[in-house]
């Protein structure tokens, strides 16, 4: 999934459309599905492979942005009679519709992930599946993979199981409404427990040395007058974090099931090298963020407020420590040396977003087999060796889309302000070219390249002049004023 979600609303879309259309062509983004893929999707919708177990009596609910319709996950939370909690987490069962080696499967391997643009998204699967039959929409009965994870009173996992079942979500909730109801004390227990369990899991995350980045969502919105647009940030709510903890809990349970069974695909990340952390320390200084040497990175991140522009900028820079993440496959009982994800500080797997990410379908099948004490399906084993490379290529394309979208939006925002002077801080300087670097504007929320005639003062405030802003070329360039 992208690190920054850019959404354009209202009149803000029009000036960006041409540049975004050119970007999709330049990156060879596969927008239209072939006719054979669409035909198979329609057949699959008419005749999915349905499970025998019926869990439609469980009042699941989803939590997503208000406009989302590709709903991968639904949950139900409850207290256990003997103490502790039970988390039931339903995941869309894409395999109920996709036949291995068929047109849908082949196209999914070509696309790898859903791609997000400010004006639209390019889905992994046809919308008849991803926004229709396979989506956990409210009041729709559909096949799912239902996880049951039992926790003790401290939120620690005691047992985990996954099996196929029919489910029926009762409600589509959004983060603002969830936060409002929990804060007001009006949420019914299955929802109110999200805060209790979420806080317990956050406490355990701190204990094991993990870290969750509350990176603000960047949004393109109309200005108050309606005749222009601007970049704003939406800071994550506590409910965002609690919801993410349920997904992390499931991903950790999935990883452990696969490790115990000897066959799996894990999301791994080695510990960041000292140089990367050193760069973050320079960025913290540039943004006037106090980072004493005795304070660990994770502790600093947890102290930040993503609603503050300087903190938001630093949290965005922290995502650079995730660049070494990859997928590790293993089979035959030979578990690899690296099984952990440094940010999670535990073994972890992607398994909760199969509508939007290819690998999740395979991880889920391996977990189903592990819980059933059965051998994994042959089609899963056959696909495993190629998955890390496929996912790496798909992730690279997603990152390229994200970077280019940010550049286009920032260039479009500034295109009529060439020659103006802004307050900024130098947040990065190229080691080989000390006169070239990156500046973060105080306002608007823009990070861009700067070129100077002399070495740039890393970490210092600077008045900069906008020299170029070209949405078509996705470039923004500043010079010292």
UniProtKB/TrEMBL annotation:
GO cellular component: P-body
Protein name: RNB domain-containing ribonuclease
All copies of domain RNB, residue ranges: 52-373
Pfam families, sorted: RNase_II_C_S1, RNB
Gene Ontology terms describing biological process: mRNA catabolic process
GO molecular-function terms, A-Z: 3'-5'-RNA exonuclease activity; RNA binding
């Amino acid at each position: 999934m992208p690190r920054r979600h850019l959404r354009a609303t209202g009149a803000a879309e029009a000036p960006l459309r041409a540049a975004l259309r050119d970007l999709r062509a330049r990156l060879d983004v596969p927008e239209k599905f072939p006719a054979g893929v669409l035909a198979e999707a329609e057949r699959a919708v008419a005749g999915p492979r349905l499970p025998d177990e019926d869990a439609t009596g469980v009042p699941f609910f989803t939590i997503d942005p208000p406009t989302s319709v590709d709903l991968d996950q639904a949950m139900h939370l409850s207290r256990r009679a003997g103490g502790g909690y039970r988390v039931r987490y339903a995941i869309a069962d894409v395999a109920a519709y996709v036949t291995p080696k068929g047109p849908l499967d082949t196209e999914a391997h070509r696309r790898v992930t859903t791609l997000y643009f400010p004006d639209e998204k390019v889905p992994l699967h046809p919308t008849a599946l991803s926004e229709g039959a396979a989506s956990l929409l409210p009041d729709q009965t559909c096949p799912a993979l239902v996880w049951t994870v039992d926790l003790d009173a401290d939120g620690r996992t005691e047992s985990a199981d996954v099996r196929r079942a029919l489910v029926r979500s009762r409600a589509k909730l959004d983060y603002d409404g969830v936060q409002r109801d929990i804060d007001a004390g009006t949420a019914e227990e299955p929802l109110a427990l999200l805060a209790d369990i979420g806080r317990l899991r956050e406490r355990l995350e701190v204990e094991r040395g993990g870290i969750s980045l509350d990176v603000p969502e960047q949004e393109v919105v109309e200005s108050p007058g309606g005749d222009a647009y601007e970049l704003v940030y939406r800071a994550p709510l506590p409910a965002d974090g609690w919801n993410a903890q349920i997904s992390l809990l499931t991903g950790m349970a999935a990883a452990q099931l696969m490790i115990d069974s000897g066959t799996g695909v894990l999301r791994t990340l080695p510990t960041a090298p000292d140089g990367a952390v050193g760069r973050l320390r320079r960025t913290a200084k540039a943004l006037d963020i106090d980072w004493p040497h005795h304070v660990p990175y994770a502790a600093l991140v947890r102290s930040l407020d993503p609603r503050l522009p300087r903190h938001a900028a630093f949290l965005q820079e922290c995502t650079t420590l995730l660049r070494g993440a990859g997928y590790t496959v293993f089979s035959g009982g030979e578990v690899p040396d690296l099984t952990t994800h440094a940010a999670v500080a535990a073994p972890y797997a992607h398994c909760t977003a199969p509508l939007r990410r290819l690998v999740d379908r395979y991880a889920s099948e391996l977990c189903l087999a592990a819980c059933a004490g059965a051998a994994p399906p042959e089609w899963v084993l056959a696909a495993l060796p190629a998955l890390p490379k496929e996912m790496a290529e798909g992730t690279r394309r997603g990152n390229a889309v994200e970077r280019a979208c940010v550049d286009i939006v920032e260039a479009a925002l500034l295109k009529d302000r060439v020659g103006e002077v802004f307050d900024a801080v130098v947040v990065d300087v190229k080691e080989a070219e000390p006169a070239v670097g990156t500046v973060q504007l105080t306002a608007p929320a823009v990070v861009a390249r700067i070129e100077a005639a002399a070495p740039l003062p890393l970490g210092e405030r600077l008045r900069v002049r906008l020299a170029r802003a070209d949405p078509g070329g996705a470039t923004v360039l500043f010079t010292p004023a």
